[in-house]
Write a structure and sequence with these properties.
Pfam families: Glyco_hydro_88
CATH class: Mainly Alpha
InterPro entries: 6-hairpin_glycosidase_sf, 6hp_glycosidase-like_sf, Glyco_hydro_88
GO molecular function, one term: hydrolase activity, acting on glycosyl bonds
Number of domains: 1
Shape: globular
Distance between the termini: 6 Å
Protein name: Six-hairpin glycosidase
Structural class: mainly alpha
Keywords: Glycosidase, Hydrolase, Signal
Number of helices: 15
CATH architecture: Alpha/alpha barrel
Order of helices and strands: EHHHHHHHEHHHEHHEEHHHEEE
Number of strands: 8
Largest sheet: 2 strands, antiparallel
């Protein structure tokens, strides 16, 4: 169906703020990126990441980054119905075999099917007439907590055949566990929020290196000790989603120390990563290996986290790096809406082939646009301080009567 666009209508509060903010991606580019994402996302983690990206982009009132999103309304307004997100949830639940606890059967990865879980929980909360969503979400939680392999320390494995920890897991499973707890409420809900935090802490104990970056894979039959850009993005973005879920839950005051730790752990990843940013704005696939190739996927994801952390902490010192990365991503999207110069998400250490694209890279562009939109809105309202960064965007804007380029980010919705 035809897309419907509605302007976010940012009211820039001062000429200083106007000169600092750039336009973000154009509506046409975002629509192309979105269309391509939906066309090629098929693996469990790709669908889960797509669902989250679409929620943040099109339905921000339902995203955990919105202070009033927990709990969501039991009945969604027709103008805010999250139809594309709920379709991912519905298709997943309908395809799940009855004897599978995990949302996707025989996936091989423990965490990846759980990445769709937030969308399934949203479907359950907003459709009381269909109990299949709640049953499916409960089964996925049961699998994570009671069936999946664990390390001796209690960390839930990312793999189903052995106890092995991947940085990717942090984006896949803890946000689902936390969201489940926030919606469930009561002592059990609080316990699940604590579990989400503890799993992150256990993973960090194993994967974090002294410089603040995370290794990609540890334990099990093989390891990847490199500081993979996308892996660090998965970890930082996953921690951020858990943090926002906790602070917007009714029991936020019980988790002040945990929230402080999460914010610190996220900040150490992004502050270290940007130290290795190339002159053109990119991060390398292995962040601190100068012989590695440039990767737009990890760059986009870490830039999105940087914008959101600026809103959370009110520290905008890393915004110049994010702005530089944003321009790099703008220049890396071709005329058909494909993000180029990505890592192959299944090999981790080779670029995507010339005739292929990265589904997660497409999603990361949408996450980046959403994060920048919310950052720009926060700056314009005065809630977030103005960065010393100069404007780096390249999209078109409109000149106001003072000759200042007034730019607006767009909220894209699809009906």
């Amino acid at each position: 169906m035809a897309p419907v666009l509605s302007s976010l209508g940012l009211i820039l509060s001062s000429l200083e703020a106007i000169s600092t903010l750039h336009a973000g991606f154009s509506d046409d580019v975002i629509q192309q990126v979105r269309t391509n994402l939906i066309a090629i996302a098929s693996q469990s983690w790709e669908l889960g990441t797509a669902a989250e990206a679409l929620t943040e982009l099109e339905w921000p009132s339902l995203s955990v980054f919105n202070a009033s999103s927990i709990p969501p309304p039991h009945v969604l307004d027709s103008s805010d119905d999250a139809s594309d997100v709920l379709k991912i949830a519905t298709d997943t639940v309908n395809a799940k075999p009855g004897d599978s606890l995990a949302l996707v059967a025989n996936d091989g990865a423990v965490g990846d099917p759980a990445s769709i879980g937030v969308a399934v929980l949203l479907a359950n909360w907003t459709d009381s007439s269909d109990t299949s969503y709640g049953t499916a979400a409960s089964g996925q939680l049961d699998y994570l907590l009671n069936v999946a392999p664990r390390t001796d320390s209690g960390a839930i494995s990312q793999r189903s055949d052995q106890a092995q920890l991947w940085a990717d897991f942090i984006y896949m499973a803890p946000p689902f566990i936390a969201y489940y707890g926030a919606l469930q409420g009561g002592d059990n809900g609080t316990s699940l929020l604590q579990t989400a935090y503890e799993q992150i802490s256990l993973y960090r104990d194993v994967l974090r290196d002294d410089n603040g970056l995370w290794r990609h894979i540890a334990l099990g039959s093989w390891q990847d000790a490199t500081h993979w850009a996308t892996g660090n993005g998965w970890a930082a973005a996953g921690m951020l989603r858990v943090l926002e879920t906790i602070v917007h839950s009714p029991v936020a005051s019980d988790f002040e120390d945990s929230s402080s730790n999460l914010a610190q752990w996220i900040q150490e990843i992004i502050s270290t990563a940007w130290q290795y940013q190339a002159d053109n704005g990119t991060l390398l696939n292995t962040i601190d290996d100068l012989s590695s190739f440039a990767d737009s996927s990890g760059t986009a994801l870490l830039a999105s986290v940087t914008y959101r952390m600026a809103v959370y902490t009110k520290d905008t010192s890393l915004i110049p790096y994010a702005d530089k990365a944003f321009t790099l991503i703008q220049n890396s999207i071709d005329s058909n809406g494909w993000l180029r110069n990505t890592v192959d998400p299944e090999t981790f250490d080779t670029p995507s082939a010339a005739n292929s694209a990265s589904p997660e890279g497409q999603a990361f562009v949408l996450l980046l646009q959403s994060a920048y939109r919310d950052y720009a809105s926060s700056v314009a309202s005065g809630a977030t301080p103005i960065s010393n960064s100069t404007s780096s965007g390249t999209s078109d804007g409109d000149d106001d009567d003072n000759g200042t380029l007034v730019r607006r980010c767009r909220l894209v919705r699809h009906k």
